[in-house]
Write a structure and sequence with these properties.
This protein has 153 residues and is α+β, with helices and mostly antiparallel strands. It is built from five helices and four strands, in the order H-H-E-E-E-H-H-E-H.
């Protein structure tokens, strides 16, 4: 749908048609979809970033909370990015770097929680749509976010 909305495509193919018809049938069926999971086996990760270029105190911050629903263990991280770190995210050439900060925050959360995620299901909550879709796709049209993360270490 994004390709049609951004005018990259204008013709509906056979696969597109199939999924659009399926979507319409699901909407017309008016039946709620039930997703069942044993929530006691999961790790919940919630991340958030902030960026206010003109702030006198905190210009860019990252944070995350981890909740292990099996043992009840809770952890968090919180940090402020330095001038040099904000420049790595593109602050000097962009008006806003919240997308980059939010995505870095999610990547840091994964890095910090990798040990408790082994062989576990995890829910990652982010409040930035660009971050969510970039993580789902595994790539981004944003050149900073698409760089190998080893560039930031």
């Amino acid at each position: 749908m994004r390709e049609f909305a951004t005018r990259r495509r204008s013709k509906v193919g056979q696969t597109d048609s199939f999924f659009l018809k399926l979507f319409v049938r699901l909407l017309e069926s008016d039946e709620p979809r039930v997703v069942k999971q044993d929530l006691q086996e999961h790790v919940v990760v919630i991340t958030d970033g902030c960026y206010e270029r003109e702030s006198r105190t905190l210009q860019c911050g990252l944070g995350g909370v981890f909740v292990d629903t099996v043992n009840g263990k809770k952890q968090f991280f919180s940090c402020e990015l330095s001038d040099a770190q904000r420049q790595l995210l593109g602050e000097l050439s962009k008006k806003q770097i919240i997308f980059e900060a939010e995505t870095l925050c999610a990547v840091l959360a994964h890095f910090f929680s990798i040990q408790c995620l082994v062989d576990r299901k995890a829910f990652l909550y982010v409040d930035n749509e660009g971050t969510k879709f970039s993580l789902i796709r595994g790539t981004s049209e944003n050149s900073t976010v698409d760089l190998p993360w080893s560039n930031f270490c």
